[in-house]
Amino acid sequence: MKKLSTTLALAITFVFSAFCVDPAYENAMKKQVAAMKTIRTLEECQAVTNAFLRIAEAKPEEWLPLYYAAYLQTTAVFRFDVNKDQYLDQAMELVEKAEKVAVDNSEVTAMKGYVLMGKISIDPASRGQSLSPQVMQLYGKAINLDRENPRALMLMAQMEQGMAQFFGQGPEKACGLARNALDLYAKEEAKVSGDYILPTWGKGQAEQVADACK
Question: Of 54, 174, 189, 211, which one has the greatest count of Cβ atoms within 10 A?
């Protein structure tokens, strides 16, 4: 009887701990997610990236710090004068670490496609043929993993827009994806409140694709 009681107590403790969030981790994430939204310079970008990496080192079981560090490394390629391939290689390493923590995660899968899309943007003529199918496969997988993920649809819309422009085709497919992504962003915004640490970025990018269709 005593052994059964001990086992039951351990089970209850395990279940309780599984649903508890480390306040220090959550507060650190909230601080850096807020800082991420105010980045204006490469130095600020690197400082926030480093902060996420420190959180990831302290909490290796969490995928979000690695995800955001990869996101910032990737967006830096589009925003600042950096060694693009080096930044994207580092971003891919972070994504692959996040994949091991969160297997078949829609956000992480979409981010992996985003990193590869950054690679294509450096030299579309020589890289597009080999990397584009991988990117589209990753976005398709991300959508199938979570039909409510607006970032997966938005990124696929961007990819479709770029391919249509490259091959001289119409924007209809990209436009449809962008409009669907905006619907999902509206649903997401209705659910988000307070200091939300899960990904919410990308609405502006979806709007840019949709605006090009007008």
Answer: 174
pLDDT in tens, 37-46: 999 999 999 9
Q: Rounded to whole angstroms, how far apart are CA atoms 160 and 44?
A: 31
Residue 169, token pair as written in the block: 């085709």
Query: Taking all residues of the chain, what is their mean pLDDT, rounded to a whole number?
Result: 90
Torsion sign (Cα): 18, 24, 194, 60 = negative
In a domain, residue 10? The reply is no
For tokens 């409510």, name the residue.
148
Scanning the structure block, which residue is given the tokens 């990397």? 131
| pLDDT, tens digit (0-9, with 9 covering 90-100), for 88-98 | 999 999 999 99
> Which residues form the domain of 155?
128-214
pTM for this entry: 0.88
Torsion of Cα atoms, 42 then 30 then 142 then 120, to 10°: 0
The 8-class DSSP code of residue 201 comes to -
Q: Are 32 and 72 in contact (CB under 8 A)?
A: no
The answer to whether residue 198 sits within a structural domain is yes
Specify the pLDDT at position 20: 53
Claim to verify: residue 139 and residue 213 sit in the same structural domain: yes
Q: Kindly report the number of other CB atoms within 10 A of residue 39's CB atom.
A: 19
